[in-house]
Amino acid sequence: MRIPILFDRAERPVQRAVGAALLLLAALAPYWSEPLAVSVLQAIARAIREADSGTLVLATFGRAGLYTLADGAVLIGAYLVVSGRRTFSSSRTQGVFAAVALAVLLARDAVAARGVPGPPVPHLLSLAVVTALLARIPERQRTVWSTVGIVGHVLFAGQWLNACPILIPFGFGRDDLAVSLHLAAEFLGAEPLLALLSVALVVPLLASAVLYVQLAVGYAAQLAAAETIERQARALHEAKLQLLEHRVYQELHALVHDLKTPLVTVEGLASLLALAAPSEQTRAYAQRIEEAVQTLATMINEILREDVRVDTRPHELVNLVRAHWLPHRDHIRLEVEVPPDLPPVRVNRIRMARVLMNLLENAMSAIGDRPGRIAIRAEASDGAVRLRVEDDGPGIPPHLLGEIDKPGFSTKQATGLGLPFVKKVVAAHGGTVTLASAPGRGTTVVLTLPCAPDPGLPVKRTSPS
């Protein structure tokens, strides 16, 4: 899960342009902020005339808001410009950010003071705190809006430090509005009030900024831990699937291997029967038994050895699959369009038949109990044969297309061994698998297998041994 930000990577040029516009706006602050500064001065004058400390406090709030807005435009603009090129986590980027922001702040103050800016202590302190807090926030949680919040809290707290009379000797409160506020506070005897308000506001403002950073760090740690657990769970699930598949293959391997002994016996007895048969018909029966044993022996070898390949025409492969078609699926119509004259493919027939059965089972599962149609089609194309399995099921949502071929994925609470197994077997035969699906349009899976290199050669049979 990723926290959304204002600009993604493709929009970084826009981010830098917005940052540059904010820096320009901040540089012109002495001009566009003049009406607001006049309003603050008028409030100070009214407080003196009426001897009203409350009006002076309101004027102090107005000045703090005005300077927070002006300085915030500088810091946010510098952040957008600098972080639009590289990550803010590097110390180099943080140094560039502080240098750009400080340069714009001093240049603006020089314009406002007509060439003689005040001490840079408030700016340096605010920049140091903002940079330290932003640097501590993990990259994934450092959004533009969180940056605005932190900058706003720190700058508003800094402006109340400028309003504190106690800090004047340390370089705070040297701008025109701050000097006017301090003179009015001295005249009204409100200096203790401003000092108390400064402490009462600065502490919670800075504390809230620090608390947000700590929460962001803690959330990032929890998020990283959750992602680690998810990766470990996925790896464990895949390991269990591989172990299950390996155990099934081992058991099947042992079972099929045990079939070879009775096959040898049957083949030997059939040979003796053919030799001792009193009639031609009996010898023909014995010959058919031997041929059936040869066929079964070839199938056993294909199961025991994945590298065994037999030249097989596509319609023979499809007929082998049709023999396993479940008769109770009478609500699903199976259409087969496989020309018998297609060139043969060199495949392990047992494993390739299992591939087609997997695709048929997936299609039947997608159709469910409603009437439906499944089609198996084949065609030759550029030295290859394309086997196409189509269904008119509900289709696969687009957001699942990228997940469906991952080991363990299943939308039916099944083992999830289907499509990964299909791709693995077809790839071992030098072929490819493509899948096309859309909601409401069904699903089509295309297996592309290379034609047998020597289609004219006879198919080799293997005797049991």
Automatic annotation (TrEMBL):
Catalysis performed (reactions): ATP + protein L-histidine = ADP + protein N-phospho-L-histidine
Its membrane topology: Multi-pass membrane protein
Classification via InterPro entries: 2C_sensor_his_kinase, HATPase_C_sf, HATPase_dom, His_kinase_dom, HisK_dim/P_dom, HisK_dim/P_sf, Sig_transdc_His_kin-like_C
Gene3D superfamilies per UniProt: 1.10.287.130, Histidine kinase-like ATPase, C-terminal domain
Cross-referenced PROSITE patterns: HIS_KIN
GTP-binding found in the keyword field: no
Top-level taxon in the UniProt lineage: Bacteria
GO molecular function terms attached to this record: ATP binding; phosphorelay sensor kinase activity
Subcellular locations according to the entry: Cell membrane
Domain Histidine kinase intervals: 254-453
Keyword ATP-binding appears in the UniProt entry: yes
EC number, UniProt record: 2.7.13.3
Keywords tagged on the record: ATP-binding, Cell membrane, Kinase, Membrane, Nucleotide-binding, Phosphoprotein, Transferase, Transmembrane, Transmembrane helix, Two-component regulatory system
Cellular component terms per the entry's GO annotation: plasma membrane
Transmembrane segments: 57-82, 94-115, 121-138, 150-172, 192-213
Official protein name in the record: histidine kinase
Organism: Calditerricola satsumensis
Lineage: Bacteria, Bacillati, Bacillota, Bacilli, Bacillales
